[in-house]
Design a protein that fits this description.
heterodimer; A: 268 residues; mainly alpha; 11 helices; B: alpha+beta; Rossmann fold; OB fold (Dihydrolipoamide Acetyltransferase, E2P); 2 domains; five-stranded antiparallel beta sheet; 8 helices; elongated
């Protein structure tokens, strides 16, 4: 077998990465409070218990609200940045773009701690708003990365042609630009939503007394009897994340096919 | 020229410090097929885009049909453009693309618009293609859709930005012919930007040759080829041999020239379009204006002697580089390959015939 050892190495690498995630659904359906083999039996009890915890529901609502606003704001910022990067040349463009993309490689703990220090110094009370601020900071680079390929693939003369044929700048944007970059926008919204929804470090540092879902979950891990419920919740979150990311990639690819461009490979 | 539909008055355009258009003055007539020809970076596309309204001019004036266009954006000018990339909207069907410019026409109902779209498609040879997806078209078909989309609005001027450069040779030649036919059929003024001198000569009523933001010569294809104003134009349009010469201009006697390699000749003032002054000058002659004489072939034309230095066989033609007695640089001569004209080997001594009427005189520079 060609590349035999390499293949084995790659497989064990994947198992090591994903095996813990596979444990989530296994114990979520296990009829027992102890997270250990052998398995006891099948139950849906932990899922039904999920529906009876008000604090959890608040956390979910909180997370959803933060994720939706983060997705909208960072995608809007991403559209502006990606369009500017694709259309215009201005002094220091590379430097500015690099600076915007920096949070992509910056350790989150550093972002979180420095944001906390700054916010406390200027006297802003910690709340959902501060979490949104932090999330927008780390989501925007992802949005730009996705939207960049949409705008780069968009031939400038398409907009000029529509304008030349009698449309206004606004109707050109609505009739030509928007439909052609829409798949990228949807994909960007979904990615930002997903990142914000399961982000922990920044939310942990910047949330006030209304925790997001990941922060709430972390708090519950102190009580052993609650762990199967957490497993059930984790299972739902994994399923939701996979679904959203798949959708996002689908829209990104469709956008490229639509404008007739070449797939230069997103980061998925 | 017919009534002017485009008037350019000392059009200047700067991009920062870069002087892209250096005072363009020209008139383009109604129903004319006009070409802007030049190497890349000469400003021809910039000029086209200033006519379309995509670029502001720094100073000067652009008039369309007598109306000053200052401050009038592209969507309110009576011009339409065919883009180099065709700019076919990929998310719309062929019919939606062609009918795009009719969206704002409230005087037409849906049926009337459909009829117009079908007529436009038939005109460019794509009848029945309306329902197809635009991204599934071939290069030549995109080109036709772009044409139909621009012509359906019956603009006063159709602007074409290197529309044939993306097509392969066969298709390009076919489209050159069709564009010309289409232009005669609709009678609209076409302004074509191209870097291909052959294309400009084949298609245009008149051609403006541009170098470095200026029009070097604006003339009919025949005049451009036969009487180029200067060496730069002569060199860009076709091939021309340049020979050093000494000139003496005498009133009423025409221009007497002593041409290196050819000998003395009297040049008609008409063949010195750039003017003539006594002293050192340069004489041009096209490769097809000289002939190699075979064996005992006789001629009443002038004769020069030389040796074949290099040859290139093209099938229908053979190009010879012949070193004429008395000059270093060989001249290029083209010969049609007809029966009785074998292809000559390198080193063959040969006689070359030429005619003083085919010489063009340039100033020394």
């Amino acid at each position: 077998m060609r590349g035999g050892w390499l293949r084995i190495y790659a497989l064990s690498y994947l198992v090591f990465l994903y095996a813990p995630i596979a444990l989530l659904p296994i114990f979520a359906f296990n009829d027992g409070t102890v997270i250990a083999f052998p398995l006891r039996g099948f139950t849906l009890q932990w899922f039904s218990e999920l529906t009876q915890i008000p604090a959890l529901h608040t956390a979910v609502a909180n997370s959803l609200m933060i994720a939706v606003i983060t997705a909208l704001v960072s995608t809007l910022l991403g559209i502006c940045a990606a369009r500017a990067a694709a259309r215009y040349d201005f002094p220091g463009k590379r430097g500015i773009m690099g600076f915007i993309m920096l949070p992509l490689v910056l350790p989150e703990i550093i972002v979180a701690v420095s944001l906390l220090v700054v916010l406390l110094q200027i006297g802003i009370r910690l709340s959902a708003v501060t979490v949104i601020l932090g999330h927008v900071l780390i989501c925007t680079p992802f949005c730009i990365a996705i939207l960049n390929s949409s705008f780069q693939n968009l031939d400038k003369s398409l907009e000029e042609a529509a304008f030349d044929l009698g449309e206004t700048r606004l109707s050109t944007f609505r009739l030509i630009t928007l439909p052609l970059v829409m798949p990228g926008i949807i994909s960007s919204l979904l990615i930002a939503f997903t990142i914000s929804l399961d982000e922990f470090i920044i939310a942990f540092f910047l949330t006030g007394n209304e925790p997001t879902l990941p922060v709430y979950l972390w708090g519950q891990l102190r009580f052993p009897q609650k762990i199967p419920v957490v497993m059930a919740l984790g299972t739902l979150l994994v399923a939701l994340s996979v679904l959203l990311l798949t959708l996002a990639e689908y829209f990104r690819r469709r956008g490229i096919a639509r404008t007739g461009g070449k797939d230069t490979g997103g980061f998925l | 020229m017919t009534r002017p539909i485009i008037t350019l008055r000392d059009v200047q355009k700067y991009y920062g410090d870069y002087h892209a258009l250096r005072g363009i003055t020209a008139e383009i007539g109604e129903g004319e097929f006009f070409s802007l020809l030049g190497p890349s970076g000469c400003g021809k596309t910039t000029l086209l885009r200033t006519i379309a309204g995509f670029e502001d001019i720094t100073s000067g004036a652009v008039l369309l049909d007598g109306q000053p266009m200052e401050g009038v954006p592209a969507n309110r000018r009576p011009t339409n453009m065919v883009f180099q990339s065709y700019a076919i909207f990929p998310h719309l069907s062929v019919a939606e693309n062609v009918g795009f410019g009719l969206r704002r026409r409230t005087d037409l109902d849906r049926r009337a618009k459909q009829t117009l779209v079908e007529e436009a498609l038939t005109m460019v040879g794509l009848g029945g293609y309306g329902a197809r997806a635009a991204h599934a078209l071939s290069g030549g078909q995109r080109q036709r859709v772009a044409l139909a989309r621009a012509l359906i609005l019956k603009p006063k001027v159709l602007l074409l930005d290197e529309p044939l450069s993306a097509l392969d040779k066969k298709l390009r030649e076919q489209m050159q012919f069709e564009l010309r036919r289409l232009q005669r059929q609709v009678g609209i003024t076409f302004v074509l930007v191209t870097h291909d001198q052959e294309e400009a000569l084949i298609m245009s009523d008149r051609v403006a040759v541009m170098f470095e933001g200026q029009i070097a010569q604006l003339d009919s294809p025949q005049n451009l080829y036969r009487r180029p104003l200067n060496r730069q134009v002569a060199d860009f349009i076709g091939v021309m041999n340049f020979l050093p010469a000494t000139v003496s201009v005498e009133d009423g006697q025409g221009i007497n020239a002593d041409v290196a390699g050819l000998g003395r000749a009297v040049i008609d003032p008409e063949q010195a379009p750039g003017g003539a002054t006594s002293g050192a000058a340069c004489v041009g002659i096209r490769p097809e204006m000289m002939s190699i004489l075979y064996e005992n072939e006789q001629t009443d034309r002038r004769i020069a002697e030389g040796v074949v230095e290099e040859r290139a066989y093209y099938g229908d033609m053979t190009y010879y580089d012949v070193r004429l007695d008395g000059i270093e640089k060989p001249v290029t001569i083209s010969m049609k390959n007809i029966v009785g004209r074998p292809v000559l080997d390198r080193g063959t001594a040969t006689r070359v015939s030429w005619d003083a009427r085919s010489l063009v005189l340039f100033n020394a520079a």
